[in-house]
Amino acid sequence: VEPAHNHVPQRQFNLADFDVDYTTGFLPARPPISRLSAEFELWEQALDKANCQNSVLSLGEDYSPEALAKRDSSAQWRAHFQSAPVLPTSSLHNDVELLRRAHHVLAFLVHFYVHSTPPTPTQAVHIPASLAVPLVTVSRVLGIAPILTFADTVLWNYALIDPTQPLSPTNMRFQTLFTGTQDETSFYLCCAQIELRGVPALRAISNYENLASIGDNDSLAKVACVLEDVAAVINDLTSTLQSVRCTCEPSVFYHAIRPWFRGSDASGPESPNWVFEGVEDSDRLDLSGPSAGQSSLMHSLDVFLDVDHSLEKPRLPAPSEQNQRADHKFMKRMQRYMPSIHQNFLQFLSATPRCVRNVARCHPSLIDPYNACVTALKQFRDAHLRVACLYVVSMSRAAPKPGCPVGAMMLKMQAEGALTCPVTGESLKRQPVRGTGGNELSLLLKACRDATTRTLLDR
Ligand code: HEM
After folding, report:
1. pTM (whole model) above 0.90
2. Residues 278-324: pLDDT tens digits?
3. In angstroms, rounded to a whole number, what is the distance separating the alpha carbons of residues 110 and 359?
4. Which of 110, 171, 294, 332 is most enclosed, with most CB atoms within 10 A?
5. Count of domains for the chain
6. What is the domain range of residue 224?
7. CA distance 3 to 356
8. 155 and 295 in contact (C-beta within 8 Å)?
């Protein structure tokens, strides 16, 4: 019996059906809109006050004199939402660009609201209904989690520097920033550059899916070309990822930018969840912070190559004890933080009748090109582990730099033998280093890397 993948595909694979553009990929081809209509000025004006060089807000966990000087203006900014009306959103529901802008604005406002509040770790953070209800409503229409996502910070956050020129890494800026630093811009830019460089891989995958048949020499040569193109893209993604080190300072990332990203679960399972006032079942919402782990491009590469992060398929070498302790559901869960149409894209891709790993297994000439792709992705994850270690793990262990009052205060307290910080109440015991989604970081990243290695085929 001929394998199923040899037959003419029953389905056309069309990127455009999934709102994936042939030149900009998962980034919208039309630049995201920059303001909602007048009826939503309540939100837009609040964002204006938070999103500028002289923002009225400061990080609640920052006890520097400059931050303390903004405590009153921060409190006033937040108080405004406690008495603000719950604006109806139905006028946005038929326009995906307006819905995305609303999600972007509201999700940034929620993070500004939560993280400008001085922390009280034993008490739940309450998000007022004026923010919580419209955010949950527009999120349900978009089919995306009601929190700041990779889409809000990168995909739906760009603007063209010169609107007469096409989108490119040198012709983009970002509309909303927590810190206004060049480091934050560079971090989003690195992610956007990866999305753009990934587009030829998406086109190659779509060409593969649409090949009339697979089996004859001509079609096998075409599959080998697809795999070579995808491997070249992944190698470039690794260089782009590493280039972030030149433009984004680890201490700025760790101490000034990343605290704004923290989601409801960032301090681990025991910390109280955020409460969305006016929302039923608020405790069942998906509320992890934004992560490039939500990049549909990276998931597309995994799905195309059949990387099994869930440890469901029999692969060798068997997962280590450490791999088994990691959160196997992380990558699957991150898909809920993508726009639903991109989730559908991944589902469609994963349901392919011609999984390229199976095809390569049946055709020895494809094993090397296939393994070269998987090796490139494994090398991306090795490089990513080093970046995450430099920006997160080492920063969490390093003595704080001068000018980092939060870290300095915590160290002083620790030296004096205190178990909890008297100001924030935070435990001073050494905690496992967690990702923005609350996962134990190195366990998770190594498990993702090792799942990639297990995808390699034997020669
Ligand atoms: C300074 C740069 C970066 C740092 C510090 C960093 C850090 C992290 C951390 C802490 C995680 C754990 C999951 C979580 O968010 O909770 C993670 C996951 C992830 N990140 Fe990054 N990241 C960086 C840049 C990027 C870029 C540019 C990409 C590519 C788009 C990327 C792709 C991923 C992916 C795909 C995951 C899921 C785990 C995996 O697939 O290995 N990261 N990252």
Report:
1. yes
2. 999 999 999 999 999 999 999 999 999 999 999 999 999 999 999 99
3. 46
4. 294
5. 1
6. 4-453
7. 12
8. no
